[in-house]
Description:
Blueprint: H1 2-20, E1 26-35, H2 37-47, E2 50-51, H3 59-63, E3 72-77, H4 132-146, H5 187-192, E4 211-215, E5 221-225, E6 230-237, E7 244-246, E8 253-256, E9 266-273, E10 277-281, E11 285-288, E12 296-305, E13 308-309, E14 313-318, E15 325-332, E16 337-342, E17 350-356, E18 361-366, E19 370-373, E20 381-389, E21 400-405, E22 412-417, E23 424-429, E24 437-443, E25 452-457, E26 461-464, E27 472-481, E28 485-486, E29 490-495, E30 502-508, E31 513-518, E32 526-533, E33 536-544, E34 548-551, E35 559-568, E36 571-572, E37 576-581, E38 588-595, E39 598-604, E40 613-620, E41 625-631, E42 635-638, E43 646-655, E44 658-659, E45 663-668, H6 699-711
Antiparallel strand pairs: 1-6, 2-6, 3-4, 4-5, 7-8, 8-11, 9-10, 9-12, 12-13, 12-14, 15-16, 16-19, 17-18, 17-20, 20-21, 22-23, 23-26, 24-25, 24-27, 27-28, 27-29, 30-31, 31-34, 32-33, 32-35, 35-36, 35-37, 38-39, 39-42, 40-41, 40-43, 43-44, 43-45
Bound molecules: 2-acetamido-2-deoxy-beta-D-glucopyranose (12 copies).
Amino acid sequence: xxxxxxxxxxxxxxxxxxxxxxxxxxxxxxxxxxxxxxxxxxxxxxxxxxxxxxxxxxxxxxxxxxxxxxxxxxxxxxxxxxxxxxxxxxxxxxxxxxxxxxxxxxxxxxxxxxxxxxxxxxxxxxxxxxxxxxxxxxxxxxxxxxxxxxxxxxxxxxxxxxxxxxxxxxxxxxxxxxxxxxxxxxxxxxxxxxxxxxxxxxxxxxxxxxxxxxxxxxxxxxxxxxxxxxxxxxxxxxxxxxxxxxxxxxxxxxxxxxxxxxxxxxxxxxxxxxxxxxxxxxxxxxxxxxxxxxxxxxxxxxxxxxxxxxxxxxxxxxxxxxxxxxxxxxxxxxxxxxxxxxxxxxxxxxxxxxxxxxxxxxxxxxxxxxxxxxxxxxxxxxxxxxxxxxxxxxxxxxxxxxxxxxxxxxxxxxxxxxxxxxxxxxxxxxxxxxxxxxxxxxxxxxxxxxxxxxxxxxxxxxxxxxxxxxxxxxxxxxxxxxxxxxxxxxxxxxxxxxxxxxxxxxxxxxxxxxxxxxxxxxxxxxxxxxxxxxxxxxxxxxxxxxxxxxxxxxxxxxxxxxxxxxxxxxxxxxxxxxxxxxxxxxxxxxxxxxxxxxxxxxxxxxxxxxxxxxxxxxxxxxxxxxxxxxxxxxxxxxxxxxxxxxxxxxxxxxxxxxxxxxxxxxxxxxxxxxxxxxxxxxxxxxxxxxxxxxxxxxxxxxxxxxxxxxxxxxxxxxxxxxxxxx
Length: 726
Ligand SMILES: *[C@@H]1O[C@H](CO)[C@@H](O)[C@H](O)[C@H]1NC(C)=O
Ligand SMILES: *[C@@H]1O[C@H](CO)[C@@H](O)[C@H](O)[C@H]1NC(C)=O
Ligand SMILES: *[C@@H]1O[C@H](CO)[C@@H](O)[C@H](O)[C@H]1NC(C)=O
Ligand SMILES: *[C@@H]1O[C@H](CO)[C@@H](O)[C@H](O)[C@H]1NC(C)=O
Ligand SMILES: *[C@@H]1O[C@H](CO)[C@@H](O)[C@H](O)[C@H]1NC(C)=O
Ligand SMILES: *[C@@H]1O[C@H](CO)[C@@H](O)[C@H](O)[C@H]1NC(C)=O
Ligand SMILES: *[C@@H]1O[C@H](CO)[C@@H](O)[C@H](O)[C@H]1NC(C)=O
Ligand SMILES: *[C@@H]1O[C@H](CO)[C@@H](O)[C@H](O)[C@H]1NC(C)=O
Ligand SMILES: *[C@@H]1O[C@H](CO)[C@@H](O)[C@H](O)[C@H]1NC(C)=O
Ligand SMILES: *[C@@H]1O[C@H](CO)[C@@H](O)[C@H](O)[C@H]1NC(C)=O
Ligand SMILES: *[C@@H]1O[C@H](CO)[C@@H](O)[C@H](O)[C@H]1NC(C)=O
Ligand SMILES: *[C@@H]1O[C@H](CO)[C@@H](O)[C@H](O)[C@H]1NC(C)=O
């Protein structure tokens, strides 16, 4: 237990050290099985790369895992006679061919066949203790040491297993007067070696002709007989490779990888995450099938050599996601389009929505199966493309696309002008966004929705003709794009102007006026009636629904004008006017006087009468005399009349063609009396008959009756009797 804990600590330290040297990417393998040096090398070549090559950098790493007191074969031997040319020197190369740039002999090693020859050889070689070059110098010197046949010293041969060796067992080796290269630093060796040249060239009993190098657990080297069975250390360069993924679809992928180094028995493929798979393969390729779309797979390929997994080649990849289904537009407004779709089979991490019009292209992402795309231009054609994507955006599904126009925007400032009896001019402002034209719907009457005019126009105004007079017209304008896609309509209500009324008739009495007329064809309208007198308005009545109007309490004999026009909405029809007089009333009597042959008549105007004329007449039927005049004042004098005559007069109020009933009467001119004598002789059988005031048969009575009949009261006359009794 304690030992394994110690091992763990070692492993931990070694691992830390290996991290430090990770740049070398060289891995070391401690093999506990005991083999001869050649067997060990062979095993290393088959299952790793070679026996270890030691360097100042790796020696610490390696030794820290060694079991203390154990010897290990390393990749160095005196001569590689079997593999190398005879020209190469001893101790010159490592098993992997690297030059021997570093030595770490335990004192007393290597062992030479005999002592140094009597040669002064070192005088020049030992005065230069520099660092890296000193190693080289030392090596050169070392080669020269090798040349003489020096017999080996007794060393470790007594203990062939090496298992019980310890540092102490080497201590006496330093006592021998042999030239040795010692542990670094090199300076010490350089100083001492020329001083201790032996004289006796005896063959050392520890000398091994074909020696191999074993390393002590603390790192120093000793020579051993190559056939000894020892544990050993192999190395291998860390294998670096990568799995390549090709032809990825939504359900398959082709994997390829690099061959591993050396004798790879097979490759172990492991697939994780979306699918668990483990396969032993000899090919360098594998077809993965039955994968799930849009899923991440983690692949490792371990080359296997002597049942050992080498560093795996790895790759992680996503399969292609499936494309979305049933992409459709659920709502369209002027500036937005709502899309929805069905999730594709397999896995999808998110969706990429591409919005494209003629110029711009925008990408947005969505986690859900739907999106509202906003800030669009009204009336424009957009293509919406939806792709499924995976987390790292490495793969995209096929596109699903749909094209759609946004709704055209509403027109603004819709106005009607120039209303006439049968036409209207409609104008508006171009809406924002794109518009290819407009549809204008004109509904001719409030309730007659089937009686409509449809127009397609490409300008922002239109004159609508052929409309009925005096009618409420409803006009709506809708913007179009692609000539088919409609926006929301904008509606305005207006009226055509009404036509003129006809047959305006005015019936008057002396204080009232009754106007009647005929209405033109139209549905929704009123009349306005104006009453004027002498050019000024007396009364205005709007909202008249029936085609007649009566005005009361008017002045008599006044020239009233009535103006009537039709009103539809804010529009007036042409006015029609007519004038008529109220009937006149007769004047009332003032005073009638006569003087001489004149008669002066004065009267009062009738009440509530505007300025009028009067017709004045005077006549005497006795004289066959007629006089008349028209005046605008309220008295008149007739002169040059017969005296003593009874004149009849008439005064009428005149109003237009109308005249009032007369104010009538008579008046006598002053009489200028003249006597006319008439003599009669009355003889009668009865005397009484001549008597003037007797019976009616009397002559006088009869005579009076006669005159009366002749003159009557037309003129002034008197009949008197003067009797003469003879
Ligand atoms: C040995 O030397 C010969 C020529 O001298 C050469 O062709 C050959 O490649 C050498 N072999 C090795 C292993 O160096
Ligand atoms: C080394 O010694 C061996 C026998 O021990 C001999 O065969 C060989 O020639 C000697 N070499 C030298 C360079 O002295
Ligand atoms: C991928 O597919 C193409 C065409 O089907 C084929 O030519 C190619 O060899 C494939 N690649 C791999 C690595 O299988
Ligand atoms: C792969 O080989 C190893 C031995 O190397 C074995 O344990 C494992 O069961 C094998 N796996 C498969 C899937 O054949
Ligand atoms: C839309 O999708 C159809 C097939 O679904 C394709 O033919 C067409 O080219 C796509 N249109 C655009 C604009 O991507
Ligand atoms: C009304 O019509 C007359 C001619 O018919 C035209 O001169 C005038 O400009 C029009 N008014 C408007 C506001 O369109
Ligand atoms: C409107 O349409 C008429 C034909 O219907 C065409 O002659 C005219 O050029 C168009 N005007 C505009 C501004 O498009
Ligand atoms: C545009 O109008 C034409 C016919 O005028 C029609 O065939 C087409 O489908 C319309 N385009 C769209 C996207 O509605
Ligand atoms: C105008 O729009 C309203 C409400 O959308 C609709 O009821 C009416 O029928 C439309 N009028 C016309 C003339 O299209
Ligand atoms: C006005 O005259 C018309 C036609 O003569 C008559 O029918 C109507 O009763 C009169 N109205 C009044 C108020 O006198
Ligand atoms: C017309 O009549 C309506 C109600 O019947 C009233 O509101 C309006 O003021 C009237 N117009 C005039 C000019 O008298
Ligand atoms: C009555 O008045 C109208 C309008 O003022 C005028 O045309 C007409 O001549 C007048 N009638 C008479 C008899 O004065």
